[in-house]
Design brief:
The protein is mainly α. It has a single domain (about 10-350), classed as Orthogonal Bundle (Farnesyl Diphosphate Synthase), CATH 1.10.600.10. About 70% of the residues lie in helices and about 0% in strands. It has helices spanning about 10-30, 30-35, 45-55, 75-85, 90-115, 125-130, 130-150, 160-185, 195-205, 205-220, 225-250, 255, 270-275, 280-285, 295-305, 310-330, 335-350; strands at about 120, 120-125. Strand 1 and strand 2 (about 120-125) form a beta hairpin. The radius of gyration is 21 Å and the shape is globular.
Length: about 350
């Protein structure tokens, strides 16, 4: 599959449609797969429509559509790490789909917990169908992720490798939910520290990118030291990605990021804010009050954050995470086209505008 050399964009254009098709296959064949296993419980059309809608494969009325549904960074990492360790990306496609389905399970539940009404420019599941059905869809997505991971057996993966990958997968899911627990707890607090925030994103963001890289290496039969190094690469890459998001959430161009409202208007406790708030009482008092900031308030908040080194500190922390990700990638001792694309992918995430 690696006929794209070190060209990152070419590789992504090559594999993302394959990942999307794998995900469609998993969702669309759910009923038949259950029936074949003796669980022929039927499947209301609306059940699968809700799953396909969230993934960007259908409109709310069930008509097929292709909506941009994110960068698919995590499943791409699975395939690249598998190839870089001597495996075949095609054999790892079910695992790549599993990682993306797990990510989307978390998004469905996050939207409910955060009361977000929009996701990628469309109404969220809970907004269209209510909390209960959205929770149920999230549970279904979580289960589909596990079924997808097990499907790697039918693509030639060794049973021992799949079992090892499933352990990493479940550990990542636990770290993810712990990260979400911390994030939710932060909403009611006005004393969240920058250190606590970094611990939270290690779970909420870093865990799945760590698992993606480790699982790709595991399915390729890589030695333990290489799996560990690539897991470290993924963890630090996820942290760098989140910190860059924090910067874009305040200073990014909405026309480029696709986010019409600044993180500041939603009182999001991101690293630039928290670091600066630890150093400025006026910022703390302005930011942690419950009133909705106006345009003048937002301008003042940005000014105070910059004056108290919130942006500078976050940019430095993102760069440090990026450097550590490259060090871990170097420790993996991988070479060849897939390794070149991994380096290019890491570089593309630092200083991005969207």
């Amino acid at each position: 599959m690696m006929d794209s050399g070190s060209n990152l964009n070419s590789y992504i254009e090559l594999v993302v449609p394959l990942i999307e098709e794998e995900m469609r296959h998993i969702v669309n064949n759910l009923h038949d797969d259950l029936a074949q296993s003796g669980f022929d419980v039927g499947q209301p059309d609306i059940f699968v429509t809700m799953l396909r809608y969230h993934l960007g494969f259908a409109n709310a009325d069930g008509t097929p559509v292709q909506v941009y549904s994110g960068k698919r960074l995590r499943p791409v990492l699975v395939l690249l790490c598998c190839e870089a360790c001597g495996g075949t990306a095609g054999n790892a496609l079910p695992a790549a789909a599993a990682i993306e389905l797990m990510h989307n399970f978390s998004l469905i539940h996050d939207d409910i917990e955060d009361r977000d009404e929009l996701r990628r420019g469309r109404a969220t599941l809970w907004k269209l169908w209510g909390d209960a059905q959205a929770i149920n869809s999230g549970d279904a997505m979580f289960t589909l992720a596990h079924l997808a991971m097990q499907a790697a057996l039918s693509r030639g993966a060794r049973a021992a490798h799949v079992l090892q990958a499933l352990k990493v997968f479940d550990e990542a899911a636990m770290a993810l939910t712990i990260g979400q627990h911390l994030d939710l707890s932060f909403e009611k607090r006005s004393d969240v520290s920058a250190t606590e925030y970094m611990a939270m994103i290690k779970g909420k963001t870093g865990a799945l990118t760590q698992a993606a890289c480790a699982i790709g290496a595991i399915l390729a039969g890589a030695p333990a030291a290489r799996i560990s190094a690539l897991a470290g690469f993924g963890a630090w890459l996820g942290i760098a990605f989140q910190l860059q998001d924090d910067i874009l959430g305040i200073w990014g161009d909405p026309a480029v990021t696709g986010k019409q409202d600044s993180d500041l208007s939603h009182h999001k406790k991101t690293l630039p804010v928290l670091y600066a708030a630890e150093r400025n009482q006026q910022l703390r008092e302005l930011y942690f009050r419950r009133t909705i900031p106006g345009a003048d308030d937002l301008s003042l908040l940005r000014q105070l954050i910059e004056e108290n080194e919130g942006r500078e500190y976050t940019e430095s922390a993102a760069h440090e995470a990026y450097v550590k990700s490259l060090q871990a990638l170097g420790a993996a001792g991988i070479e060849g086209p897939a390794a070149d694309v991994l380096y290019a992918l890491a570089e593309s995430l630092l200083g991005r505008s969207a």
